Amino acid sequence: LPTTIPTLLWSPASKALTLSSYPPPTPTPSQHLIELHSTGLTRGELTWPEPNSCPHPIPGRDFAGIIVGSPPTPSPRPFRPGDRVYALTSFYRPGHARTYSVAETTELARMPATLDFHEAAAVPMSALSAWQGLFTKGGLTAEERSGENEGKSVLITGASGPVGLWALQLARWSGVRSVAVVRTGKEGLVSELGADEVVVYEEGGLREWGEGKVGVEVVFDCAGGKLLKEAWTVAKSGGKVVGIAEPPKDHCPTDGVKEDVKGEWFIVDQDGVMLEKITDLIDAGKVKPVVDSVWKLEEWGKAFDKVETGHPLGRVVVQV
Ligand SMILES: NC(=O)c1ccc[n+]([C@@H]2O[C@H](COP(=O)([O-])OP(=O)(O)OC[C@H]3O[C@@H](n4cnc5c(N)ncnc54)[C@H](OP(=O)(O)O)[C@@H]3O)[C@@H](O)[C@H]2O)c1
């Protein structure tokens, strides 16, 4: 292993990123050492508290790469040198905008055989957030065309974003009717990926859309703000508003919400076993990642501009 490797370091104090030469990580006895190929960027990640609480924060919360070293103790889910893997890793450790990194066995999954490294790096954070939003938190059933989901609907705000595009595809796979809320111009992609209905958002439009309707079982909010506030009004009685962008309860309007609607905010869990189910769905051609663009590590500035203000269609990926 080289003594230093190219590493993108974030300074929360000066709010600046610097591409530096920095020592590679030393795996703990439970960690794998991985030669990275690509990492995915996520809007807002530079200001999230957890990743920036570690001593040397590095952006890029998920990756795709090849195992180069494994823990000495055997594991029930072994990964060996040469295996192509991907993962979302703990927010309390440095990320993956560097050429070597580490991951726990519990975080790792086999990479889909049908994807290249850039496509694979676009998956873990977004697909796991969508799976947990719909099934773990939203209470919909995680099974192909499940009878349990018959007649149920989910409304997805921010449906053209990385997480929203996965939520649409997983809704289609599990037999849940989906309503995608998007800005004008993004109707085509969300329809292609499974939206049963598309609402082009204009202020007040969601309240209007919900008027006279029973409402949806689950609102999955991937946008926050005004859109989240209006989305409360389209959940049916006893339904749920599940959010990842901002805590739904902070945006509950004072009028127009049906009885017993619950708000739930969550932070995505790193879960290699769940990610491996997504691997299987990808290889079976049921779902797929959408990559907006791929940038070199030296182009980190442009890559972050694209994520934060460039309205990407799908995930922005950095080749490390
Ligand atoms: N809690 C967690 O564990 C967790 C995990 C992953 C992500 N997140 C957060 O969840 C959010 C969604 O993640 P993401 O990766 O999908 O990122 P994203 O790039 O923020 O995607 C959000 C989508 O929402 C759309 N949108 C925003 N405001 C809108 C509006 N008023 N009308 C219509 N569409 C609107 C955006 O469209 P435009 O591009 O046109 O603006 C974009 O397509 C982000 O804030 C991210 O930081 C949280």
The CATH homologous superfamily of the largest domain is named Medium-chain alcohol dehydrogenases, catalytic domain
Question: Under CATH, the topology of the largest domain is which?
Answer: Quinone Oxidoreductase, Chain A, domain 1
Number of helices: 8
State the share of residues found in helices, binned by percent: 10-25%
The top-level CATH class of the largest domain is Alpha Beta
Radius of gyration: 20 Å
The rounded distance between the terminal residues' Cα atoms is 16 Å
Largest sheet: 7 strands, mixed
What is the CATH architecture term of the largest domain? Alpha-Beta Complex
Summed over residues and divided by their number, the pLDDT gives a mean of 96
GO molecular function, one term: oxidoreductase activity
Pfam family, one: ADH_zinc_N_2
GO cellular component, one term: mitochondrion
Protein name: Zinc-binding oxidoreductase
How do the helices and strands line up, and which of them pair or pack?
Layout: E1 5-11, E2 16-22, E3 31-41, E4 62-69, E5 84-88, E6 100-104, E7 108-110, H1 117-121, H2 124-137, E8 153-157, H3 162-174, E9 177-182, H4 187-192, E10 197-200, H5 205-210, E11 216-221, H6 225-231, E12 235-243, E13 262-265, H7 272-283, E14 291-296, H8 300-309, E15 315-319
Parallel strand pairs: 8-9, 8-11, 9-10, 11-12, 12-13, 14-15
Antiparallel strand pairs: 1-2, 3-4, 3-6, 3-15, 4-5, 5-7
Helix pairs in contact: 2-3
The structure holds NADP nicotinamide-adenine-dinucleotide phosphate.
NADP nicotinamide-adenine-dinucleotide phosphate is lined by residues 42-44, 125-126, 129, 158, 160-164, 181-183, 201, 222-223, 227, 244-245, 267-268, 311.
